[in-house]
Amino acid sequence: MRSVAGTSRSFNRGRWLVWGGYALLMLLAPLVFTSSLSTTMLSQMGISIIACLAFNMLLGQGGMLSFGHAVYSGLGSFIAIHALNRVSGGSLALPVSLIPLVGGLGGLFFAALLGYVTTKKAGTPFAMITLGVGELVAAMSLMFPGFFGGEGGITGNRVAGQPFFGITFGPQLQLYYLIAIYTFVCTALMFAFTRTPLGRMLNASRDNPERIEFVGYNTRYVRYIAFMASGFFMGIAGGLSALNFEIVTSEVVGAARSGAYLLFTFLGGAVFFFGPIIGAVLLVLALVLLSELTQAWLLYLGLVFTFMVMFAPGGIASLIMMNLRVASFGKLRQLLWPYLMLLLSALVALAGASAMIEMVYHLQLNKVLGPELKFAGVPLNAMSWSSWLGAGVLLGVGVLLFELARRRFMPLWGRIQEEIESEIQRREARA
Amino acid sequence: MDASFLLISLLNGLSVGLLLFMLASGLTLIFSMMGVLNFAHASFYMLGAYVAYSITQVIGFWWALMLAPVVVGLLGALFERHALRRVHKFGHVPELLITFGLSYIVLELVQLVWGRQAVDFTPPASLSGALFTIVDAPSGLSFAWGEKPPGCGSGGLVCTTFPAFRAFGMGVAVLMLISIWLLLTRTRIGLVIQASLTHPEAVESLGHNVPRVFMLVFGGGTALAALAGVIGGAMRVTEPSMALTVGAVVFAVIVIGGMGSLAGAFVASVGLGIIESFAVSSDRSIADGMAAVGLAITPETFGFALWSVKLSQIAAILPYLLLVLILIFRPKGLFGSREG
Amino acid sequence: MTAAAPAIELRDVRKSFGRTEIIRGANLAVQPGERVAVIGPNGAGKSTLFNLISGRFGSSGGEILLHGQRIDGLKPYEINRLGLARSFQVSNLFTRLSAFENIRCSVLWSMGYKYSFWHFLADLDDVNRRAEDVLGMIRLDRRRDVLAMNLTYAEQRALEIGITIAGGASVILLDEPTAGMSKSETSNFVSLIREVTVGKTLLTVEHDMGVVFGLADKIAVLVYGEVIAFDEPEAVRTNPRVQEAYLGSAHADAGAQSGGH
Asked: CA-CA distance, C213 to C255, in Å (whole number)?
């Protein structure tokens, strides 16, 4: 028999390491990346982490695909900023640091209200209903200017009420640490949720929604309560967002934002708990940096997402875990060269493809600037054959090399997996 | 409310409803058959409009009407063969997600090729203008072919025209419906499709080449969407946002009608089209309704903002309101059968 | 609830799918602690009957009673909470959870934890102990952490039974538990079933006559949606109506195995 005490001790040590590292990372990040852009981005990352984890409570843990989840973070934002304005106005005595909780309660309220109808169904109908409800709320946001502020949205000032030990949350850095605290606590809470009876039954309902009815559970209730829990955390993210930007406009409930949550959570990996954290970081990087770098960023996003669905539906997290598993059996070294080949050839192909994409975008959208453009420092002429030929050659060569590298990689990967399987069986037999 | 206005509104609603049904039917066929909800269905609608626009520039509208659905249908079949099929083994959620990803890609590509502004896709000269006019005179209703007769707008005469292209669109929709019905009930492939609507596994075990049928159905469904796009794009505006606006309504329609039910999709589409057509032109609100019963609603009343919202303002969100209502009172949808 | 109430009682139960009537007035009364095998030709409606009793389908007529309480029209979870559990002919497991987790999920409600999100699973000693016990009973303790979808077929069938009995229901319905098993696997499985259903009321659908005669006190014969016989195995074997409708060739098999009971 396994030594339960022994394994739990090493398990706990691993846990302390991971959570400690997570906290340390959040603590030290702004000290390493000191520019104001970095601090802004880090703040947004914290907010997005909470949102994506909350979204994954439904997607990864419950198998529920929601197309309109920005509704709950958005409405949480609106409630929070109205509360903030009341604090500024003096009619509400609440420390600014608790405003996100107000957002959370707002998210919870609307999740309870709208979720009642939404969770009546599961699977694909559920997804369609969330789309409809999302459209409903987004459309209504233009109809009630009192609450939604019309075109201009609602503004607020996070320097309100009494400062807390000299902390006003005016400077971005102060707000970042507030966000970091919320992010850490919310991550811990959502992780704890996965280890509760409800969390486990949520997983069960994902795997077999019919069977849990035969072991005493009302599937609908499980979905509904999980929906409300998710809405609560979405609301907290929304409240933090209201504090961060000091303005809330109707786009926070819009389809674009809902789509972003879905896309990046899936990209990060819905199957593992930490996947959405990766996704959230990528979300901010894409929205802030990539969109500045190229006008074709949405196309790249769509393509990457589609390829992920086809070839790695477990997301980046699953790729990491697969390789960690290989590493734990000491076989990662064999894969280093093949991985390098794959990466290099992919980069070459990518360079060629994106050069072409950039040239097309340039022709279409920047006509007035003339046909010349700079691509990663290389001057190109979108109207000249040579540029196109060069890009085409890069793409062709890259694809060819990738295919060659892939042909050498796949059998190697397969062999390693087999070796690992037989090793596992050997260990089991010994136990 | 004039009778002529009523009639024209009804016809307008019917034309929009039939357009919606063209989309909803393709979506329902794909869903019932393959269990895939094609999130990119409205993207194919948009593609149909844009491709038709380009073909019209070169060889005219009538060719566009015939070729655009074929081109888009082929693209749909290709997508099914090379992308969707690969994801089939992962389950329904990844299938839905890949069509979601496709919708992003199509949107970007369309904007890339045709730009971000609306394009000028209009009905051909032979179909523009009014098909008939209804003249509402104090003496009664009268009917006139073609444009408004002289004297309209004065002497108490109210004239409302019905555009020829709308009528044409309705005709196309009805024709398409009939041919689909004939295909499903009279041909062998139609029988296979019908059987697969309710028992896909049984059909496969009977030896039919279900993957090929899948490709056919998916291509057919997207071709249908493209055809709707040719009509809708010329009738309304052809711009990048048309996929989003139509897409969400179509999904609401199929949930209201009951997922997997063609009859339900028909009733829901036409019903929604007509209701919206009447709502758009109505300045009434719940407050007016309450006033009629004797309850006075003033700006001081709680929720005044809610009660005073005009029907015309909420016309756009009526589909989603109805969706929520249906879910509360009749979750299976109007004619719901398979849950998928 | 009187002391004399049967564990399961069917009174003129009917079920139609569209215009086809599958169950045409089934009557049955199973006493607490009895072990009944339900047999019948293909298409007789055995699985449908189970689906009706367990609440998966609604009946089109008649009454179904559990310990004297009407359960027709109730949802599956309501019936389960009243003390009835069923297994499925095609293993219906929680595919991405481990064998242990599968059992634990089946135990949570019966131990009162319901929709709790304020308890940690790791701290629930009663739940974990019960799950380990059941896992041991179905002899999957060595495969504790293997995902359900990675178990062998026989292991999955065992897990299927485990999920069914873990909650401690007093009435157990097993739908073709030995489907797809080899002879040796079947006999092992039968002794497993006997062990884990001690003291319970057992209803199983079976095709394998050896299993039937080895497991059941009584046999109910379902033909064209009606129970045409319900008696001890010997009486059923010699019942002319049954012989005519079903046992036919199996009669010779059962005669050869008359050692077991």
From this structure: 11
pTM: predicted TM-score of the whole model, two decimal places: 0.89
Residue (of A80, A115, A393) closest to A252 by Cα position: A80
Q: What is the distance between the alpha carbons of residues A79 and A100, in angstroms, rounded to a whole number?
A: 10
- Whether CATH 1.10.10 fits A13-312: no
> What's the CA gap between C102 and A428, in Å, rounded?
20
Furthest C-alpha separation in chain A:
75
Name the A residues in 127-146 with CB < 8 Å from any B CB: 127-129, 131-133, 135-136, 139-140, 143-144, 146
Question: Which regions of chain A carry the CATH code 1.10.3470?
Answer: 13-312
User: Residue B282: phi, psi to the nearest 5?
Assistant: -105, 135
Q: How many CB atoms lie within 10 A of CB A281?
A: 20
Cα–Cα nearest to A134, from B96, B40, B248: B248
Paired strand residues for C221 = C39, C229
Q: For A253-299, write each residue's pLDDT tens digit.
A: 988 999 999 999 999 999 999 999 999 999 999 999 888 888 889 99
CA B196, B201, B207: angle at the middle one, nearest 5? 85
Q: Do A211 and C163 touch (CB under 8 A)?
A: yes
**Helices A70-89 and A219-245, axial angle in degrees (round to 10):** 50
SS3 C214: helix
3-state secondary structure B263-306: HHHHHHHHHHHHHHHHHHCCCCEHHHHHHHHCCCCCCCCCCHHH
Specify the range with the lowest mean pLDDT, choosing from A237-251, A273-287, A321-335: A321-335
Q: For residue A373, what are the β-bridge partners?
A: A380
d(CA B117, CA A287) in angstroms, rounded, equals 23
Confidence check on the interface: ipTM exceeds 0.85, yes or no: yes
Regarding predicted confidence, which is higher, A320 or B245? Answer: A320
Task: Quote the minimal CA–CA distance from C38 to chain A in Å.
Answer: 21
Distance CA A253, CA A131 (A): 12
Looking at residue B118, what DSSP letter applies? P
Distant-in-sequence, close-in-space partners of A222: CB < 8 Å, separation ≥ 6: A62, A198, A201, A202, A205, A212, C115
Domain boundaries, chain C: 1-82+215-254
Contact indicator for A74, A293 with CB cutoff of 8 Å:
no
Q: Rounded distance, CA B237 to CA B231, Å?
A: 10
Write down the pLDDT at residue C3.
59
The answer to whether residues B227 and B293 touch, using CB atoms and an 8 Å cutoff, is: no
The answer to whether residue C141 neighbours chain A at the CB level (below 8 Å) is no
* Neighbour subunits, C (≥3 Cβ pairs < 8 A): A
pLDDT tens digits for range C208-249: 888 888 888 899 988 888 888 898 888 888 888 888 876 555
CATH (one of 3.40.50.300, 3.40.50.2300, 3.90.45.10, 3.10.20.30) for C1-82+215-254:
3.40.50.300
- Which B positions 310-329 lie with beta carbon below 8 A of chain A? 313-314, 316-317, 319-321, 323-324, 327-328
- B264: tokens are 């339900």
Helix B242-257 vs helix B41-59: crossing angle, to nearest 10: 130
> DSSP readout, A89-142?
HTS----GGGHHHHHHHHHHHHHHHHHHHHTTS-HHHHHHHHHHHHHHHHHHTT
A238 within 8 A of A74, measured Cβ to Cβ:
yes
pLDDT in tens, A58-104: 999 999 999 999 999 999 999 999 999 998 888 888 888 899 999 99
Q: Please, what's the b/e burial string for C158-185 (b: 16 or more CB within 10 A of its CB; e: otherwise)?
A: bbbbbbbbbbebbbbbbbbbbbebeeeb
Nearest CA in chain A to B328: A117
Place of tokens 């529920």: A64
pLDDT at B339: 41
